[in-house]
Each structure stands twice: as structure tokens, then as C-alpha cells.
């Protein structure tokens, strides 16, 4: 049934992609483009496609009855192993479809979970995926029992969650409980760790999967992180120093991408991984300007930010891949809606100067760049600046005074106004290359140096 992929020598499952477009949804020219990307990333060989417009889903099979018959014939003709639905199906619908079609049926959530399971590398992301898979399969355990003979391998069945399918519900519930505890612990540790880097301004890349976050990270910091034309290539967070023109060094984090209708459990279990974004001083929302669905993708990202309660954070919208936008009116349409966006190409480097400029501007809005003169023995002031701001330079004068060049969130300005302390806007910006961080503070070792 399965074809042998000559290049990899791995058997690839032959898949038919199916999407039911409901009345409420808008239909674009390529309704199966994203599902194709997901299925290919999961390793499927796409042999057929089917879409149907319906007012509402069919209760028993989601797809209409007549279409189910058509799909069955198509599957037999094409010798397909699996039908992958772009919709989220309930357990009964999957069971009914599998019975009617005689092949494995996967829905969108299962497909996404499968990709996460395949791509998870760190122990943290493995635990997060296992939790999301188990939470997804718990209400479906019955289906696992009755179909175990037929559905036992391949896409949708991989990853750490897989070994649990043969144990009973109670064991699954216990494992879910333990995983939640373990991830909760990781989340709290991560929260403290990221918070301990408060002396560094942090900028976090967020955005739709495949928008080019990792490529941008590599271009800006030479990080050498994996960037690939695969969905969810990145599942962990990497943080590197980024030397920002006219500003100095900040920390830049790359993290897992988002997708529309991201399974709810996944957002929750990846909370620890998203901690950098949650605590960032500024978000760079990277969008793929060359994708026809860019508006929907921007909204989908916004929804996930809402779920993480960080939608109010200062954000710069970055329109990436402009080297692939051939019709300039497409770009104009995006700018009409998002006039403050910055357009770049992470791969060619076009627009990066503007991006640096926009980021410095955005940071300056929230941070005061100051020269503070005080008595060199003012321990309270030092402690306050170290706790809330970022000390960039210190120089001592002969009369036992110190001049501190620092950045402080505007809201903390009140905390340093006292007698004997002179505050003025920072005068001569030292060229970025020669700006040195002083007073390295805990949490530094957590900044990953990528080999
Ligand atoms: N033409 C073009 N391709 C780009 C650009 N930026 C990224 N890409 C390509 O887009 C694909 C995805 O890039 P990544 O950097 O892995 O995207 P990502 O946002 O990190 O994706 P995930 O980690 O999967 O969420 C890769 O094939 C990149 O080479 C760009 O500016 N222009
Ligand atoms: Mg990435």
C-alpha cells in the first residue's frame, strides 16, 4: 500500500486531502495549500484532493454522505492509505469515516500533533507534546481500542504519546497529571530564569509557522539555528545577543511558530517554551508577505497572543519575504492596513536597516536612555538600576561621583529622582560596537550559544 520514497528509503503514506468549507468561511484560490504543507511536513505523499462546500458539517461523517462515497472510490482508485481532513472531527465522526472508507482518517489537530511529535528535540518540548497528545487522545481512547488492529502506525501515531494508547484510561489520566506537574515545575523555573535577565532588554520573534523567524534570527545574530521550508521546524526557544544599531546589544529570542486553530492544549503545554515571548520587552511579529493568506495568518497570530495574554505588548509587525512579492500592489494592500509595518527580506537582507531603526524607536518609546550622575557610594541607586533597568556604562569622576549610562523603563523614572542625583538624557551615543555590557547578572548562562 505504501510507496517507497527512493531518496530517503522511508515508506511514505499516500494521502488524500479533504476539506469541508463551511458557509461561514471564505474560500480562497488554494483552499488546501496549508494542509498540503502540513501533510508534506509530516511525510505524506499527496495523491488526491477533495473539497466540499456545506452549510454545516454532517453530524455523523462531517463530509456529506454522497461525498463519502466519492471519497471511498477515490481512495480505492489511488490506493490511498489515509484521508487527512483540514477540519477538526469528533471521535465518532472519525470512527464512522474510517468504517465507511476502510482507511485511516486523521484530522487537522492530529496532523499538527504528529508534526510536533516528530520535530520535538528537547526534553521540555517532548513533554509538552506528550501532554498535548494524551489530552487529545483521552476522549478518543475507545476509538483506539476498537481500531487498534488497523490504525497502529504512521502519521498521527508517532511520538511519545503513542506508547500510551495500549494502556487504560486511568494510567493515561495519571500520566497527564504527572506531566502537568512536571511542566508546571519547568514553567516556574523558566519564569524565574527569564525574569532574572531583567537587566537585558529582550526582543522576541513571534509569528505564523514558516514566516521566516529563524531565518531572520540567523541573519541578525549569525545564530545558525535551523531554518527550513517545513512547518514547525522550530519547537524550542533560542536566545542570542543582537547588536542593535544606535542602541547596543539586546537579547533576541526565536521560538515555536503559530498556526490558525492551534490545538488549545498545545498552546497551554508550550507555555514554558513561550516564556521568553511572554516576558519580552518588545515583540517582532514576523509575517510572510508573499503568502496569499497573510491577513488571516496575522489574525491567527494575534489570537494566540491573546491566549497568552500578551496581545497588548509593544509589537513591530515585520513583513518578510518581500523578495517573493512580485506585485507591489499586494504589499501596498498590507501597508494600507498596517501602516507601521516594516518590510524586509530575511534571506536577502533587504530592509534590515529600517528594521533596526524601527526596533530602536520602539524601545526608546518605552525606555529612557539616561546619564545619571550620583555619589559612587549610593548602593540603593545601583541596586534599583540593576533590578529595573540596564546599566550600559559606568565612569567615575575624581570627586567620587559616578556617571551611569543606563536604560530604564519610563515607569521606573520616579524611583531614581532624589537629592544628589542628576538625571539627563544620554548625550553621545557610543558606537554600538564599542558599547560593553557591565555588571553581568545571573541568567546569563541560560543564553544559548549555538555552535
Ligand atoms: N524567499 C524568501 N524565503 C525566506 C525568507 N525568509 C525565510 N524564507 C524561507 O522560508 C522558509 C521558512 O523559514 P524559517 O526561518 O524556518 O521559518 P520559521 O518562521 O522559523 O518557521 P517555523 O520554525 O517552522 O515556525 C525557509 O525555507 C526559508 O528559507 C525571505 O525573506 N525570502
Ligand atoms: Mg523557526
From TrEMBL:
Pfam families: GTP-bdg_M, GTP-bdg_N, MMR_HSR1. Mg(2+) binds at residues 214, 234. Transmembrane segments: none annotated. Keywords: Coiled coil, Cytoplasm, GTP-binding, Magnesium, Metal-binding, Nucleotide-binding. InterPro entries: G_HFLX_dom, GTP-bd, GTP-bd_M, GTPase_HflX, GTPase_HflX_N, GTPase_HflX_N_sf, P-loop_NTPase. GO terms for cellular component: cytoplasm. One of its GO terms (molecular function) is metal ion binding. Residues 201-367 form the Hflx-type G domain. It comes from Anatilimnocola aggregata. Its cofactor is Mg(2+). NCBIfam families: GTP_HflX. CDD domains: HflX. Gene3D superfamilies: 6.10.250.2860, GTPase HflX, N-terminal domain, P-loop containing nucleotide triphosphate hydrolases. GTP binds at residues 207-214, 232-236, 254-257, 320-323. Belongs to the TRAFAC class OBG-HflX-like GTPase superfamily. HflX GTPase family. Monomer. Associates with the 50S ribosomal subunit. This is GTPase HflX.
Amino acid at each position: 500500500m505504501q510507496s517507497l520514497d527512493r531518496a530517503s528509503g522511508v515508506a511514505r503514506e499516500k494521502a488524500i486531502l479533504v476539506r469541508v468549507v463551511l458557509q461561514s468561511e471564505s474560500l480562497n484560490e488554494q483552499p488546501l495549500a496549508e494542509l498540503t504543507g502540513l501533510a508534506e511536513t509530516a511525510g505524506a505523499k499527496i495523491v488526491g484532493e477533495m473539497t466540499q462546500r456545506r452549510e454545516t458539517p454532517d453530524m455523523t461523517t462531517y463530509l456529506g454522505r454522497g461525498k463519502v462515497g466519492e471519497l471511498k472510490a477515490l481512495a480505492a482508485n489511488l490506493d490511498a492509505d489515509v484521508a487527512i481532513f483540514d477540519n477538526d472531527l469528533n471521535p465518532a465522526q472519525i470512527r464512522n469515516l474510517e468504517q465507511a472508507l476502510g482507511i485511516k482518517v486523521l484530522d487537522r489537530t492530529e496532523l499538527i500533533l504528529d508534526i510536533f511529535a516528530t520535530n520535538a528535540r528537547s526534553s521540555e518540548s517532548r513533554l509538552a507534546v506528550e501532554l498535548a497528545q494524551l489530552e487529545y487522545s483521552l476522549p478518543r481512547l475507545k476509538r483506539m481500542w476498537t481500531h487498534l488492529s488497523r490504525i497502529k502506525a504512521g502519521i498521527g501515531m508517532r511520538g511519545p504519546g503513542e506508547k500510551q494508547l495500549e494502556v487504560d484510561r486511568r494510567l493515561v489520566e495519571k500520566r497527564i497529571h504527572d506531566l502537568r506537574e512536571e511542566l508546571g515545575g519547568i514553567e516556574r523555573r523558566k519564569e524565574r530564569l527569564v525574569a532574572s535577565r531583567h537587566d537585558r532588554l529582550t526582543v522576541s520573534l513571534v509569528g505564523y509557522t514558516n514566516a521566516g523567524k529563524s531565518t531572520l534570527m540567523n541573519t541578525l545574530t549569525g545564530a545558525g539555528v535551523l531554518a527550513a521550508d517545513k512547518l514547525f521546524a522550530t519547537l524550542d526557544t533560542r536566545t542570542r545577543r543582537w547588536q542593535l544599531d544606535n542602541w547596543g546589544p539586546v537579547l533576541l529570542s526565536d521560538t515555536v511558530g503559530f498556526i490558525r486553530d492551534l490545538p488549545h492544549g498545545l498552546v497551554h503545554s508550550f507555555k514554558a517554551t513561550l516564556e521568553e515571548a511572554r516576558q519580552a520587552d518588545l515583540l517582532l511579529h514576523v509575517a510572510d508577505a508573499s503568502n496569499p493568506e497573510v491577513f488571516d495568518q496575522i489574525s491567527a497570530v494575534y489570537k494566540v497572543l491573546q491566549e497568552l495574554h500578551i496581545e497588548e505588548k509593544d509589537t513591530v509587525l515585520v513583513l518578510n519575504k518581500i523578495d517573493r512579492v512580485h506585485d507591489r500592489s499586494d504589499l501596498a494592500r498590507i501597508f494600507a492596513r498596517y501602516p507601521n509595518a516594516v518590510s524586509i527580506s530575511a534571506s536577502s537582507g533587504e530592509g534590515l536597516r529600517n528594521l533596526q531603526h524601527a526596533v530602536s524607536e520602539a524601545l526608546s518609546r518605552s525606555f529612557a536612555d539616561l546619564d545619571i550622575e550620583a555619589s559612587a557610594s549610593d548602593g540603593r541607586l545601583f541596586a534599583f538600576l540593576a533590578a529595573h533597568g540596564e546599566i550600559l556604562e559606568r565612569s567615575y569622576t575624581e570627586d567620587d561621583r559616578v556617571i551611569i549610562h543606563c536604560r530604564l523603563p519610563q515607569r521606573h523614572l520616579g524611583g531614581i529622582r532624589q537629592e544628589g542625583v542628576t538625571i539627563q538624557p544620554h548625550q553621545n551615543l557610543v558606537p554600538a560596537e564599542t558599547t560593553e555590557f557591565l555588571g553581568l547578572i545571573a541568567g546569563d548562562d541560560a543564553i544559548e550559544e549555538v555552535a
